[in-house]
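User: Here's a chain of 290 residues. Predict its fold as tokens.
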Amino acid sequence: MQKILIQLDTDPQPSVFDRVVAVDSGVEHLFSYSGVTPETVTGLVHGAMFTRGPADLKNTAIFVGGGSAADGEALLKKVQKTFFGPMRVSVMMDSNGCNTTAAAAIASARRHLPLAETSAIVLGATGPVGLRAAELLALEHAHVTLVSRTLERAQAACLTILQRQPDAHLSAAAAASPEDYQQLCYGQELIVAAGAAGACFLNDGALQQLPGLRLAIDLNAVPPVGISEISVMDKATEKFGVLCYGAIGVGGLKMKVHRRAVASLFEGNDRVLDTRAIYALALEVAGIAR
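Assistant: Prediction complete.
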């Protein structure tokens, strides 16, 4: 029986990126739907559930995507609520690459640092990737500072993570200039920059002025990058005594994780690939023991 992936995209046009990765992951038929909302998704899910018998449902899967992670989360919840008993298919949510990118970034950090008790800071922590990177660091028992342009947004992000990880060690901070960001990074061992395209957090010379910093990851590929001394191609490149990763340096693992996640949807009909499940796959792909 052929493998069918049903792409439910919240945007006006289904993501070409996600469609290409689906094909490269071995999907034989790809059904793509755009502008999908929780109010309109039920019929699409029923079409996935009721066209094959329970034993064959592992050959059908759903991918939730789009530009908004919040919309994707809402759609994922509604898809899951529509399932009942054995009538379900595996589902993955990766709106705007939020889960696969965050998972690849923190798995890359795990290659070099024992994250438990590590002092880490996430710049742009209220964005879709930053929030998930902070959650995964909290899952690894790091001490995490979440930075946003307003303290209220950073505090709200902390509360979101605490609902999922009650024992998380979190603090919130706000910054408005490269000088503010540099001051907040002082004494941190790990920096993850996950801001919007074109948002520069740390200017030239910053890495040299951060004693104790061991690893810096910048996930912005659009110039100006988030940490100006990091190239998008850097992959465990040492600069001023700091190991550095750029967006493409992390992107190789991200793509492997994305393809592996899509392929794994067809290993059963009950997989739910959310932030933590995708991170577990990222560690597996990277050959890192849990």
